[in-house]
Structure formats: C-alpha cells, structure tokens
Design brief:
Number of helices: 10
Order of helices and strands: EHEHEHEHHEHEEHEEHEEHEEEEEEH
Oligomer: single chain
Bound molecules: NADP nicotinamide-adenine-dinucleotide phosphate
Largest sheet: 10 strands, mixed
Number of strands: 17
CATH topology of one domain: Rossmann fold
CATH architecture of one domain: 3-Layer(aba) Sandwich
Helix content: 25-40%
Structural class: alpha/beta
CATH class of one domain: Alpha Beta
C-alpha cells in the first residue's frame, strides 16, 4: 500500500513518528517520507538514524498553513501526529494548545484538500472522549474537524479518519519512567493518585500497526478505537517496585479515575469489530446514501454495540496482570 508512495508525518520526530518511520522502512519501499516538525535539533538527531534516500526533513509549524501547503505537494498519505499533549501545560497555556491542536488540524485539512492527498489519519487520545481538560477538549475539536472534513472534498478521492487510543507504554513523561526514577532516588513508598485509577495500555508498535491497518479499512469519517488491555495504577507500582508500599496523593487537576474511549452517548454510532471499535460520524456527508460503517473496506464485519455501551478502562474485560505488566515494560 505504501510502496512508491509519498507519506507525510506531522510531528514525525516524536515517539510515534519515529516508530512509524522505522516500520514503514522495514515493511515498504516508499518513494518519500516527509517529516514535518519545528525543532531542527530533533530533526538533526533523527537524520543520524534515518538518512535513507527517501527521507525528507521539513522544518515547519502546523500553525503555518502556507508551509503545510508547500509540504503537502505530491503527498499520497498524511499521518497527523503533531500536537501539544501535556495536560498541565495545556491548562496553563490554553491558547497555545488551541493554536497547535485545533488551528493546526484545520491547516492540515486545508493543505490535504488543496493538494488532493488520498488518505489522512489524525491521531487522537482517550482524553478526547468526554474531555475534562483542555488538552482533551482540543483533541475532541480536532477529531470533529477531521470527521467533518470529509464533507469538504467534493468529488475528489480524499478521505479523513481518526485513530483514538490510550496511554502509550513508557512514553515521555509517563508513569513507569516516573516510578523508576523515584525508586532510583531511594523512595521508600510510591505516590498513587487514587487506588481505583485505571488506564488503557498500548505499546507504540501496536499503535503504529493499528494506524497502518486503518488506512486500508477506512471509508472516511471513522474514529477507530483499538481493543487494548487496561492496567490498575496499583499494579503498575507493584510491577516497578514489588516491595515498596504506596501512598495516596489524590487526583490531579484534569485527571480522571478511568479513561473512556467510546462514550456511552455515542453508543448509537458505535460498531464492534473483532479487534477494534468504530465510532461512525454523527453527521451525514454530501452523499445520497449514508455510508454503511458496519462493514469496512477490508470486508470486515462489525455489529452495533448495545445502547448505553461505553468502552472505558475500568469496565474493560481485559486487564494486565502484574507479571504481564513486567513483561510488556521490560521490568523483569
Ligand atoms: N504518547 C501518548 O501516550 C499518546 C496517547 C494517545 C494519543 N497520543 C497522540 O499521538 C500523537 C503523537 O504523540 P507522541 O507521543 O509521538 O508525541 P511527542 O513525542 O511529544 O511528539 C510530538 C511531535 O509533534 C511535533 N510538534 C509539536 N508541535 C508542533 C507544531 N506546532 N508543528 C509541527 N510539529 C509540532 C514535535 O516536534 P517539534 O517540537 O520539533 O515541533 C514532535 O515531533 C499526538 O497527537 C498525541 O496526542 C499520544
């Protein structure tokens, strides 16, 4: 699918982008992979690892529509991964987060439509479902923009979809590296925000593979949600430091006890497939008949979920055991 194609990754120097590039290079022979991001140092460092002939490095800001217009010339596929994603930073700098995550999304859409890009997938997060913090709210706006963008394509074969998933194992600023740091500093107990707290848990490779697959599945307008396990925060602490006790510090601003990926209020729009869910668009696009989202372009068949169904990290049927957490995070 990506052989001899031109692929642009906004935020290509981030954790997701680098893994996506590695996977593309391992499995396909793309014509060009364009990395689009702001910081020249991150790009320089990435070039030391990925300097294949197909690699192109564009300095640019998703807030800058003209630069995106230029970068998207001749592009077949876009993965929109650029974002400001730290919850506290978004609370303190709301307009900065809005400019990158919302206006940036709008610019990516405009550049994709103007350049007749074939397929675009934007990355989203569980924090966008029933958001309670600004980061989540901006990602919900971004999701809505990408879904509605399918209405602006007219007759051209440009389609937009969203992939939403939860915490990435050991990503920058995540809890396991934090616990490990405390242990290394000689902590005598580990801080837990709330004993009931649960989170979805996905590896970077699983996230990358899910995005790759959804380029073949999408009709346009879907929010794809993978079925992934949950973890209990207390089990994460036990996996990092089995002998240390925990102490409760209380929930932090903008944090939830459980995360939601498919909200109850969207249950009438949600289809369950073998290994994922699809939240279909609430709006109809400019077509005579509504797309049938119960079957995807790979011919996989889904079924509507029960009314009131919610896919959330506390009622998830699959939880990782402490041993599985250790194995998944190389803690053995
Ligand atoms: N990590 C997780 O746990 C997680 C979970 C669910 C969803 N997601 C979503 O997955 C996506 C990728 O996350 P990640 O973990 O790879 O993030 P990351 O490691 O923080 O990387 C973010 C990337 O975006 C770029 N960027 C930031 N602002 C930009 C701007 N204004 N214009 C252009 N590029 C910009 C950054 O490079 P520069 O700073 O050089 O511009 C960097 O390349 C995000 O959309 C995030 O919301 C992440």
């Amino acid at each position: 699918m990506f052989d001899n194609k031109v692929i642009l990754i906004t935020g290509g120097t981030g954790s997701f982008g680098k893994k996506y590039v590695k996977t593309l290079l391992d499995r396909y022979s793309p014509k060009k992979i364009i990395i689009f991001s702001r910081d020249e140092l991150k790009q320089y460092e990435m070039q030391q690892v990925y300097n294949q002939r197909c690699m192109r490095y564009f300095i640019g800001d998703v807030r800058d529509r003209d630069r995106l217009m230029q970068a998207c010339k001749g592009v077949d596929y876009i993965i929109h991964a650029a974002a400001l994603k730290q919850v506290p930073a978004a609370e303190y700098n709301p307009m900065e987060c809005i400019k990158t995550n919302v206006n940036g999304a709008e610019n990516v859409i405009a550049a994709a439509v103007a350049n007749k890009v074939h397929r675009i997938i934007a990355l989203s997060t569980d924090k966008a479902a029933n958001p309670i913090n600004l980061y989540g709210a901006t990602k919900l706006c971004s999701d809505k923009l990408f879904v509605a963008a399918n209405n602006t394509v007219g007759e051209q074969d440009t389609r937009f979809a969203v992939v939403r998933y939860g915490n990435v194992v050991c990503s920058r600023g995540s809890v396991i590296p934090f616990f490990q740091k405390l242990v290394a500093e000689g902590a005598t107990s580990l801080p837990i925000t709330d004993e009931r707290m649960t989170r979805f848990w996905i590896t970077l490779q699983q996230g990358v593979d899910f995005v790759l697959k959804n380029f073949s599945r999408m009709s346009g307008g879907e929010i794809f949600v993978p079925k992934i396990p949950s973890v209990r925060i207390v089990d994460l602490a036990a996996a990092v430091a089995p002998k240390l006790p925990v102490h409760t510090i209380g929930i932090r601003p903008g944090e939830k006890v459980k995360e939601v990926m498919c909200p109850e209020d969207d249950s009438h729009l949600t289809f369950e497939f073998d290994d994922h869910f699809v939240i279909s668009p609430a709006i109809h696009f400019n077509k005579e008949t509504r797309e049938d989202y119960s079957q995807n372009k790979l011919g996989e068949q889904g079924k509507p979920v029960a009314s009131g169904f919610s896919y959330n990290s506390s009622e998830n049927p699959v939880f990782l055991s402490i041993d599985e957490i250790k194995r998944m995070n190389n803690l053995e």
